[in-house]
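Final report, closing paragraph on structural work. Over the funding period we assembled a curated collection of sequence-structure pairs, and we close with a single example.
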Amino acid sequence: MKLIDHLKAVLASDELQRQIIRDELQEIKDRYGDKRWTSIEYAGGDFSMIVLKLCCK
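Its predicted structure, as stored:
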């Protein structure tokens, strides 16, 4: 019964839902949040047409 009451409380409370999400994201960050091994760099050129073609099909 305790579990059911807790789950009903979670469903009824936006704040409790947000707190659970925050806690879970923090756990993921703590576990996997190391420095990037690769870098993202601008390679030059115009890619707006590529993006336009991909998003408008």
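The CA atoms of residues 23 and 29 lie 10 Å apart. The radius of gyration is 21 Å. We thank the funder for supporting this effort.
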